[in-house]
Amino acid sequence: MLILTCPCCGVTAEETEFHGGGEAHLKREGPGSDDAAFEGYLFHRENPRGVHFERWRHVYGCGKWFHAARDTGTLEVFGTYSAQTTEPPADLLEKIRERRPGWSWREFS
Ligand SMILES: [Zn+2]
């Protein structure tokens, strides 16, 4: 069972109290983008075995969205943080690098 802590209200609970919202930190494409960029925004998602950044919503709590970094293979949660960011906080990235030597942000694809 995945255990998450909502960074908005501080509640720690099982994943059934939350709802996953897919990959975090997607670059949104607007009406002026080309077809390939818009297709990538709509359909292409990372699916790593390992470190992944995701959007979650605290549906049975405060109702707010946040981001979580976790390992998809072990379910280890590295941390949660505000959804009002364009990339993970530096201290969280450092924590992940300590636990997964050799890993780096945006090394996938
Ligand atoms: Zn909450």
TrEMBL record:
Signal peptide: none
An annotated GO BP: tetrahydrofolate metabolic process
Superkingdom assignment: Bacteria
InterPro entries: SoxD, SoxD_sf
Pfam families in alphabetical order: SoxD (PF04267)
Organism: Pseudooceanicola atlanticus
Molecular function in Gene Ontology: sarcosine oxidase activity
Record protein name field: Sarcosine oxidase subunit delta
